[in-house]
């Protein structure tokens, strides 16, 4: 080996370098003598400075070297920095970011830096390095510069990067980044993407601006489909659409009136119109003798389970074999099935009719009408709830649900009142309807009203005003909570009060702080519970890491038996982390730890949190964890795990989960409660015969529908106390899931909104943000003709150039326009 250099000879090395650099500089000196006289004073000064810098740059002291090199760059050639090469520009960008931070600390001038930034950004944008340009501008906090530098060729890649980066930025930076992306999309008339970001920001002014900026009526129809899928209430005004007839047609699309038609078109195409019975789902003949030998003792409970399975499986198809069969048929009439259920079971049975006729308001109201004339209160209650379910997500100018349910809110019987209140909550979720508020708010502060009526009123108000931060509703719920006695605070249903309060702030982050302060004054029985619920709702879907840490800290505490606030903390963990893939995987791993080390009441909530994280997305690892927990010695854990197996497989017909549940049904054939949970899960897995999803995310997991999340979270909070709510007499809480039920379809329609069939490729979505060139966005695809089903994580693209889709994201209803440049080969 060659001997290493002597560490003490560093100085010599520097001197040697100096000698070598100085030698060539003697020769040109003679020629330059004449030139030197021609230089002006400024230039001379500059030349001397530069010479000084060159000397300093060779100084043995690294500090001096660095300072000299930096000042050289700043006083250096003002011209094109690109000529120095790409690597140089990248290094420079990194140094500018550091220098900027230093100067911000010292409050020094940054003008010279900003001139350089301008040049670097221009260079990056020209050379397909949009991501680096965006990073630099984020570092120097001046994203507005982007608007000057984006052009037709690179704006899509730039905006893709901005929207993906927003998930990982702390607030309020994330909103600023999305604002810029929105402006760029509007600038290049890429309205569908602009609309998505407007919906993500929940900014109605922006949504309006998209409508006013765009002049093409067909594109506006597509916007309306996007808004209706997001599930918000939105009124078009003359500014957005001038022509009255057009406006009415567009409002119809926003109101979702065509959803049922599209869904049935899909069902006919896939040939699943034939009604299924619960027995078709249970497939008891595949099990060994003991479980299928005959009905077990608790047949009312089994009939109730069959009611739910029947409702979930035939949801939206308008026909089934239990409730809608004509009464004169020999097989037994609908009336008969209704009366195979015990008292409160009749409520769920009557309401199941609403589920079967989901989204078909006219037929639904006709079918349910006969139950209003019954003298049996539970049946009337069920019919009221059914009306709410039929109208779920469908808006109507004449408000049939409000007209029918409004007069039952103040009846004597509390079950009827709950039916009407819950029906209103489901039908008008997210509508912020003041008329309903004025009739429900008084119930909250009515001393004579029973606790369950108050709990459901709070919940329905939370649904109707979801994410609105409405002060008045918040006040009413807070007073209702303060008025509860010690005994009432111990009741299971009291948990719906904090939840109703939390829903008002769903996803609204800091806006919850004032209310959270007030909640610290509540009775200590409910104080912590309220705190956790508010925190988890306010940060739901934001992926906020700090809040995840807070919630994990709560889950880790080992407390007395009576504490119930850890349940919502575990659910909150899932609610906050569910928005993006990385956070989701990390949350699943954290929950594994919580399972191992957590107390019993924490373990009971873990399966539910897993169910929320992978809802309608059966990941094998989570499936195995839940399968293990469904045999747990603690029956509450086993029940939660069983229901969660249904949630992760909801609407997927997943054969593996279906098999697990069949085995569980024979394993638990003697345990009525657990068998009930298994049946519910089986109904969920085959929901809508595999055409529906419960996922609150849509538009390639960018947008989170607030009403859908509200429905799921309500069910999960109810499942924290299975025995008293779902296995008690409030099993109809299961119907809150209807808020999240959506067809997982892609249906192409022509310019007159009539379905047309075109070939599409469906495959696993690939994340191509920031990749070079034009990479493929899907992998492992198959070609089908529309309408098609999209599973979790799948994406579709047209396989023909004959049509142009009016939205870049092919989900739900897509309008196709004929391609004028298309030539048949």
UniProtKB/TrEMBL annotation:
Role: Acts as a regulatory subunit of the 26 proteasome which is involved in the ATP-dependent degradation of ubiquitinated proteins.
Q: Where is the RPN1 N-terminal domain?
A: 73-286
| InterPro entries xref list | 26S_Psome_Rpn1, ARM-like, ARM-type_fold, Proteasome/cyclosome_rpt, RPN1_C, RPN1_N
What are the coiled-coil residue ranges?
A: none
Q: What is this protein called?
A: 26S proteasome non-ATPase regulatory subunit 2 homolog
Q: Does the keyword Ribosomal protein apply?
A: no
Comp. bias intervals (Basic and acidic residues): 13-37
User: Which keywords annotate this record?
Assistant: Proteasome, Repeat
26S proteasome non-ATPase regulatory subunit RPN1 C-terminal domain location is: 769-822
Subunit structure, per the record? Component of the 19S regulatory particle (RP/PA700) base subcomplex of the 26S proteasome. The 26S proteasome is composed of a core protease (CP), known as the 20S proteasome, capped at one or both ends by the 19S regulatory particle (RP/PA700). The RP/PA700 complex is composed of at least 17 different subunits in two subcomplexes, the base and the lid, which form the portions proximal and distal to the 20S proteolytic core, respectively.
Species assigned in the record: Brassica cretica (Mustard)
Q: Which family does it belong to?
A: Belongs to the proteasome subunit S2 family.
